[in-house]
Write a structure and sequence with these properties.
Number of strands of chain B: 2
Shape of chain B: elongated
Largest sheet of chain B: none
Largest interface: A-B, 43 and 45 residues
Oligomer: heterodimer
Helix content of chain B: 40-55%
Helix content of chain A: 10-25%
Largest sheet of chain A: 5 strands, antiparallel
Structural class of chain A: alpha+beta
Number of helices of chain A: 9
Order of helices and strands of chain B: HHEHE
Distance between the termini of chain B: 33 Å
Radius of gyration of chain A: 22 Å
Strand content of chain B: 5-15%
Number of strands of chain A: 14
Number of helices of chain B: 3
Shape of chain A: globular
Order of helices and strands of chain A: EEEHHHEEHEEHEEHEHEHEHEE
Strand order of the largest sheet of chain A: 10-11-12-13-14
Strand content of chain A: 15-25%
Radius of gyration of chain B: 14 Å
Distance between the termini of chain A: 45 Å
Chain lengths: 344, 73
């Protein structure tokens, strides 16, 4: 039974829990609403490069096998199930309360549609408005397996390449292993793996079962404190709102090594170029502070150790409150300048 | 089973990775959203935007439900 859903308006959030920065997500359920699997992943690549028909077919074969075994396999599915939610539907969040449960097909229908990424924007806005620190799982949701040293082959269900010195490599995973389970849960896709990662506590061993050359192998993987912070969130549509909060609407990217060398900067010194500077409303704080596209940010709030925009955004929403100021030192041409922006 | 699933996937792929509006130049996003519904609401392969009916049919036929959440580009 195939159901096509084209809007988040009215979406049952007690059932549909997923990485809402995706533009394409598939859910497989039993008729009793037990979730078998998720499919759909995205990263800094074009969205289409992180999914494939072959990979989806492999997930579907696993789902059919799970369906044939169900309910005898319920324990292998227990932690894949949705968790309690604060709001039943997206339009229940204050930020999205102007939307209706149904689309306005007779009017401006696209404008009446809640986009998936707006769900996370709305969730983060509540944390921010309560002046609370955003925890790592909120800033770095649904971590990419690359964060722990795994690259999934997109043409398969869960065959991986492994970085040697990563958490996965140190746990004993090898190139070509097929991941069967993590934390006792059947892995039917990369999205399933990400769901499990998203739920894991820091600094805790997690059980992983792999298929290596046809034989099951059980491993224990340790994810150290703060492991999520290695993740890249710059590609996420929801980082747009984090930029409003932290960098005054600037999109920051690492400068090329050649530019770094010509500026006489060492490899560990901060140097992020403003690839975009917002022009309107609360996204124009950096512009109002005098920054323009092409400026190279060397220091933020007295710190010169941010190597990526993701690290900087995380610092801003975890260490700074709305209304705080942050000093920015930046290079334009051969001159160095300083200014301040207001944190939102 | 393997061949059958793969064949189904090729068909579904057209819906996953293209919209039914492909070929219509200069369509607005509003046009695309309306066109998607017009094209697929009566398609036998899909239940269009009615999850509860999807669960009912799955219960009757003892099959799993595949729910696809796809932003129309």
């Amino acid at each position: 039974m195939s159901v096509r859903l084209v809007k988040c308006n009215g979406l049952d959030l007690s059932l549909f829990q997923f990485d809402s920065d995706l533009t394409f997500a598939v859910f497989f359920f039993n008729a009793d609403r037990t979730l078998y699997a998720r499919y759909g992943t995205r990263s800094q690549h074009d969205a289409d490069k992180d999914v494939s028909l072959e990979g989806l077919a492999a997930t579907m074969r696993t789902v059919l096998a799970l369906h044939a075994e169900y309910p005898g396999n319920a324990t292998k599915l227990a932690k894949k199930q949705p968790v309690a939610v604060e709001q039943p539907t997206p339009e229940s969040y204050p930020l999205l309360s102007q939307f209706k449960p149904e689309l306005d097909y007779g009017g401006r229908v696209a404008g009446s549609c809640i986009h998936c990424h707006q769900i996370r924007d709305a969730q983060r806005m509540i944390v921010r408005q309560q002046n609370k620190t955003m925890p790592d799982p909120v800033v770095f949701p649904f971590p990419s397996p690359r964060t722990i040293g795994l690259s999934f082959d997109k043409q398969t269900r869960s065959t991986v390449q492994v970085e040697e010195d990563s958490s996965a490599g140190l746990a004993g995973l090898r190139n070509g292993d097929e991941i069967e389970q993590i934390d006792g849960q059947q892995v039917a896709s990369e999205a399933d793996f990400q769901w499990a990662l998203n739920r894991l506590p820091d600094d805790n061993p997690v059980a992983v079962v792999i298929n290596r050359a046809g034989k099951p192998v059980s491993l224990s993987m340790h994810l150290p404190e703060g492991w999520r912070r290695k993740g890249d969130i710059s590609w996420r549509p929801t980082s747009w709102d984090l930029r409003r909060m932290v960098t005054g609407g600037m999109v920051l990217k690492p400068i090329p090594d050649s530019t770094r060398e010509s500026m006489g900067l060492s490899a560990d010194e901060m140097a992020l170029v403003a690839d975009h500077v917002g022009q309107f409303g609360a996204h124009a704080r950096a512009k109002q502070a005098g920054l323009v596209k092409g400026d190279i940010v060397l220091e933020f709030d007295g710190r010169a150790d941010f190597q990526s925009e993701s690290e900087l955004l995380a610092y801003g929403v975890q260490q700074k409150k709305p209304g705080d100021e942050a000093g920015i030192r930046y290079r334009r041409g051969n001159e160095t300048h300083s200014t301040k922006i207001r944190i939102e | 089973m393997r061949v059958r699933v793969t064949c189904l996937m090729l068909g579904w792929g057209l819906l996953f990775f293209q919209t039914p509006t492909a070929g219509f130049a200069q369509q607005t996003r509003d046009d695309k959203v309306r066109s998607d519904r017009e094209t697929l609401k009566d398609d036998d392969s899909w239940n269009y935007d009615d999850l509860e009916q999807g669960f009912e049919v799955a219960r009757r036929d003892r099959k799993p439900v595949m729910a696809v959440l796809r932003c129309i580009p």
